[in-house]
Amino acid sequence: MIASHIQNITINKEIVLENGQLRVSILPECGGKISSIKSNKSGTEFLLQPSQTISNERDLQYGMSFLPPYAFGFDDCFPNIAKTTLRLPIGERDYPDHGELWTSKFNYEINGREKSCKIETNGVFQEYIFKKKVSLNGKRLLIEYELENTSDTELNYIWSAHPLLEVDPEDEILLPEGIRHFEVYYSNIQSLLKGDHLQWPINVRNVALANVQEPWKEIALKLFANNISSGKAGFYRKKSDESIVFNFDTYHLRHLGLWLCYGGWPESSEEKQLTVAIEPTNCDTDCLSEAIQQGKHTSLMPGKSNSWFFELCIEPGYGNV
Prior knowledge:
With 321 residues, the chain is an all-beta fold. It contains 1 helix and 25 strands.
């Protein structure tokens, strides 16, 4: 039986979905962020938690940089990732770092019969409705997305999952045999340059980057695997001997991004993060204007809609990918 309720907490208004296996928290007024995925069996938290207490969602401002303490949990990056300027029918508009959803407020509806939650929000500069339905089924969390273009012009976009994971040194990224070739998109390692091609598992100076490294190594790396055929990936937690496994829709999400942050970000802060993000996406660049120039983006015609899914499952031991 899944318990679902809303409660006011110090961080924000919180929607909680819970059963015997999982406890999932969603913050509708903080970008629809999934703030926690916790195993009720082991007590393991799988999502990165905020570095300090967030007491007022009104601190979120459109256009602000995606930085701690708000850089935690699972956000949706849309319609862009990197900060960019787009030429729209209404003129040029600046799209903020990590997109415009994470600072938006979402309307919500809890379905007691289905034991699920639906949330949605509207576009800021362009007319669209972004919806997602979050459902629990045993040890599985299913997220079903729907994007509707309600304008009279094309909607060009990038979407990327952005689940920042709670990690410890020696935890391990799990990838299927079909995902072995990556391209460097960003690196603070001098020997790795943007555009370099790497073979998974990646070793740099005898450092195995598939395993979480100590934060003093100050590594930050963004990679893309392009045109993938397998919609699976996972992350193994050594301390609790369990994994979180991701299943996703490769028809719409043809690429897989990896964000490896082993004490190398934020650049401007003395307090660095230790986290990994496994990021299925429709595009192999973070910059929407660049994607449009290269024809890599997705374009949604007026009155049309797209839908896709993303599923997470908690498994004992090394997850099956």
